[in-house]
Give the backbone structure.
Amino acid sequence: MDEQKVLSIKGLLDDTPEEYLSHKEKYENSIRKSVLFYKTLHSTEDENMSVDEKTKLNFRNIVTSAIFKDNSPFMLHNSMFIPTIMGQGTDEQREYWMKRAKNMEIIGTYAQTELGHGTFIRGLETQATYDPDTEEFVLHSPVLSSYKWWPGGLAHTANYCIVMARLYIKGKSHGIHPFMVQIRDEETHMPLPGIKLGEIGAKLGFNTVNNGFLGFENHRISRDRMLMKNAQVLKDGTFVAGSNSKLTYGTMVYVRVLIVSNMANMLAKAVTIALRYSAIRRQSQPKPDEPEPQILDYVTQQHKLFIAIASSHAFYMNAMWLWEIYYSVSLQLASGKLDNLPELHALACCLKPLSTIDATAMIEKCRLACGGHGYMLSANLAQTYGLATAAYTYEGENTVLLLQAARSLVKAWVGHVKGRPLKGTMAYLAGDSTVKAWDGSIDGIIQSFKVVAIRKISSVVKILQDYEKSGLSPEDAWNKASVFLTAASEAHGRAVLLSVYKSEMDKRAAVLSPPLRKVLLQLVDLYVTYWALEKVGDMLLYASITDKDVDELQRRYIELLAAIRPNAVGLVDAFDFRDEILNSTLGAYDGRAYERLMEEAMKSPLNAEPVNQTFHKYLKPFMRGKL
Ligand SMILES: CCCCC/C=C\C/C=C\C/C=C\C/C=C\C/C=C\C=C\C(=O)SCCNC(=O)CCNC(=O)[C@H](O)C(C)(C)COP(=O)(O)OP(=O)(O)OC[C@H]1O[C@@H](n2cnc3c(N)ncnc32)[C@H](O)[C@@H]1OP(=O)(O)O
Ligand SMILES: Cc1cc2nc3c(=O)[nH]c(=O)nc-3n(C[C@H](O)[C@H](O)[C@H](O)COP(=O)(O)OP(=O)(O)OC[C@H]3O[C@@H](n4cnc5c(N)ncnc54)[C@H](O)[C@@H]3O)c2cc1C
C-alpha cells in the first residue's frame, strides 16, 4: 500500500504537535491514529507471500509506523505477536489465532522480559505449572522480579499476549515456553482475575508504545494455550521436548532481521532531513566577496552526512540478503532441517548490533550537523534518535549478541584448525590471512577487512586457550577475553556488511542506467573507503597498509565527497519520504524550513497569550520584593 493512501486517511495527521501533549494524551492520540491507520492497512501477510512481498509488508509497516513520530502501541502486535503465532503455533493454533490477530479482533504483544531478567532467558521466573487434573496451566509471578516488564502495548492496549514462562510439570522445570494468554476482558477491557497490569512510565523514546508490566496471581489457562509447535505437554502431563530448545527463540531472530531494515529506514529519514536542511541553510563567509555558502558545501558537512546515505543503502542491501537467508532457513526448519539455524543466529547477532550502533551514531551526527534547529523536537531528529537507540537494547542487547556471534566464530575457527570445513559466511576464515602488499581497490579493501577478522578471531582464540592452559575455567577465560571476543565479532560483521553491500550492488549494477550506476557505485566506494579510514589501526596492524597508502585513501575519500556532492540532494530525494512521514520542519521537500519553524513555534501553548499568568502570580511580586 502506498503512503499516499495512508496519508489520505482523514484525521491521521496531528494538528497539535505531539510535543505539547501530556504523557496520557500522547498515548490516547496514538491509539486514535493507530486505529485509523489499521482500518486502512489491513495487512494480510500470509505464508504464501513471496520473500519480496513479505519484505515489502514489513517495510510498509516500518515506514507507516514512522507517521507516529514515536511508534504505535500496535507495534508488537505486528512485529512479534503475529510472528510468534506463525512460528510457534501448531497448525490448529495458527488457524484459530491468526484469523483473529490478522483481523485485529484481538490485539497482542510479546511478554518475555521481566523486571529481573531481559538478556538471560533461561533465568526467567514467571511460572507455568501444569495441572493434569484440570488440564490447565497455572501462571504465577512468584516474586516482584518475575513481573513481565517492558512489553510494548502491554499496559492498556493489548488484550492478549504471548507469555514466555518456565514450564513446571510435577515439580520439574522444562525450560521456557510460549503461552497465549488473554489478559483483558474482550468486552470491558478490564484485567482478568489474577492479572495485574500497568504502564512502566516515561522513557527516552517509545512514549506512545505503552510499554507495560504484568504480574500473575495463580491465573489459570487451558492446556491448548501453550503454543505447541516445538514442544508439547500431553493431557496426562507428559512433556514432549522439541528438536532444539532454541526454536522457542525464533521470533527474536525474525525481529533482529527486521531491525536491520528498520535501521536502513530510520537512517534514510534522518539524513534526508539533515541533508535537505544543509542545502537550504547558508552560513559564514569564507570568501569575503561572495555570498554565504550552503553549509552542504563545507566538506566537513559532507563528511558527516554522505556516509549516512551510503550506510542506509548498505543496511538495506544486507537486510534484503539476510531476509532471504531467514526465509530459506525458516522453510528448512519447517521440514525439520536445523543445520543452518546456527549460522542465521550468528549473522543476526552481528548485523543487528552493527546496524543499530552505526545508525544510532549517524542519526545523532545528522542532528549535530543541523546546529540549533537540529535540537528542536519539530526537526524530528531527536525522536528518530530515540527510536533507533532503543534497538541497541531491545531484541537482544548488542554486547550480548556480539558475544553470541563470537561463540560461533570461535567454534568455527577451532574446527577449521582441526581440519573441519568452514561454510557459508564464515568460509572466508579459511583464507590467506597474510597481506603481502596493500591493495587499495574496493575488493582489495574488503579482502583486508576479512583478513582483519581472521586475525582478530585467531588471536582471541589463542588468548582463550592460553587462559585455559593457565588453569582458568572456560567460563572465566571467556569472560576475561570478552572485550576482544566482541571486537572479533564486530570485525566479522564489518567484513559481512562490506562484502554483501558490494556484491548486492554488483548484482544490480547491470540493470542500472550508466549515470545511476556511477552514483550508486560511488556510494559503495565511499562506504568502503570511509571504513578503511575509520579502522586504519587494524589496517596498519593486519593489512600492510603504509602511510603513503593512507594518504592516498584520504585523498580518494575527499574526491569522492566532491563527486557525490552534485547528486546529494537527489540521493535523499530518492528515498522518497513524503513530508508527512518525515514530520520535520527542517526536512520538508519545499525547503521552507524557517517558515515551518515559525509555524511550529506558534503552536506552542505558551504563544497563545502575550503574558503568562505566572507574571502576576509570581514574577511581579518577586520583582517587587513582595513574594
Ligand atoms: C500502526 C503501525 C505499526 C506497525 C509496526 C510494525 C512493525 C514494527 C516496525 C518496526 C520495528 C521493527 C522491529 C522492532 C520490533 C520490536 C521491538 C520492540 C520491542 C522489543 C521486544 C523485545 O526486546 S523481546 C525480548 C528480546 N530479548 C532478547 O533478545 C533476549 C536476548 N537473550 C537471548 O537471546 C538468550 O538469552 C541468549 C542467546 C543470550 C542466551 O541464550 P541461552 O539459552 O542462555 O543459550 P546459551 O548461551 O546457553 O547457549 C547459546 C547456544 O544457543 C544457541 N542459540 C542461542 N540463541 C539462539 C537462537 N535465537 N537461535 C538459534 N540458536 C540460538 C547459540 O548458537 C549457542 O549455541 P552453541 O552452544 O552451539 O554455541
Ligand atoms: C524500547 C524498548 C522496548 C522493549 N520492548 C520489549 C517487548 O516488547 N517485549 C519484551 O519482552 N521485552 C522488551 N524490551 C526489553 C528488552 O528486550 C531488554 O531490555 C533487553 O533484552 C536487555 O535486557 P535487560 O534490560 O534486562 O538488560 P540486562 O540483560 O540486564 O543487560 C544490562 C547490561 O548487562 C550486560 N550484560 C548482560 N548479560 C551479559 C552477558 N552475558 N555478558 C556480558 N554483558 C552482559 C548487557 O550488555 C548490558 O550492558 C524492550 C526494551 C526497550 C528498551
The chain has a mean pLDDT of 93.
